[in-house]
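INTERNAL AUDIT FORM
Audit reference: QA-55
Scope: verify that the stored structure record matches its stored sequence.
Auditor: D.O.
Record contents follow.
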Amino acid sequence: MRRNLCIIVFLSLVTLTTLSVKGQEEFIPPPARLLTSFPFKQFSGGVVVLKAKLNDIPDSLNFILDTGSGGISLDSMTCLKYNLLQVASDKTIRGIAGVRNVKFTNNNTLRLPGLKVDSLNFHINDYEILSSVYGEHVDGIIGYSFFARYIVKINYDSSLISVYSQGSMKYPKGGHLLKPLLVNLPIQTARIEEAKRETVARFYFDIGAGLCLLLSTDFATDSLKFSPKKRMRNTQAEGVGGKAYMKITTVKEFKLGPYRFRKVPAYIFNDDYNVTSYPYLGGLIGNDLLRRFNLIINYARRDIYLIPNKHFREPFDYAYTGFSFYDMNGIIVITDIMEGSPAAKAGFQVDDIIVAINTNFSNNVQSYKNMLQNTGETFRILINRNGELKMITMKVKSILR
């Protein structure tokens, strides 16, 4: 360290005493090259889903693109379906709902449109609950193993992903450069204001999380110190290991770089499995907030470049109905109802089966969720309760305002 300091001082003196020197020679990497571009779609909460093929399997598979994943993974049912060799390991993965030992399927090739990514070791996990939440089968999650090899642009205006080789890249004007810590997962510093108190903390930068903010109870009570009068609702969310029960509320203001967001929905969870290692981390920033920027993710330089997009000022999802529903083998089943919510007041019950919303009989989870975010609208929802059809009318409104 002393030697490095001496070198810095020496260079400073050289700069001061040789004013005729106009510049210095510098080796720079070659320019990044565009390798491919392809479309993606979004699940609720802004989660990015792309189509890819595995090895020589002809079927297209659904993968979630996730900076919150420290590797790359496949669903256990997908592995069984395609008879992929599974190898036991002593490695474990940890999420908000549990810790589990995982197997691997090694030396696989992922085929994206216009790009082949080889020598990939997928860990194997059970994504049945994610498939139920989104209403489409989730075959895997693409994380660090992919981001570490390329520069990735995600354009939420055009729903287009562009993949570049590593190299020098000039970022466009009009954005802001973040320099997160990066040890497999990017960790970003941000500010939260609540109860006239501003708190600076570190958060996972997690585009695979379909929410705005997820905060640990330790962080919420020790650092934010919500007012006892703050409105909070009991709910549940899904993660590695299954369901986790938590509360939902809002924070007064959240600031990421120079960008400010007010009344941001935040889930508060008991970090029983020490995912955040509080006080090291306060929680995570999810993609219902991050999708408001077009992103350039450059792990080689530890850069994430944000450019506000057309979604920047869209309203947040304040849990406008207060119920959750899953796709269970093609049947849309209500699994959770928040106390005091529009759904509870309308008379819905857990295990009610949604048959249609207004005239929409599509049985499509994503379609129904999108409809039910139209605050102020009144919906007629046809349900099946114990074999009897019943029509329930519900007005959609925020449960947090």
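Auditor finding: record pair retrieved intact. The longest helix spans residues 2-17.
Action required: none
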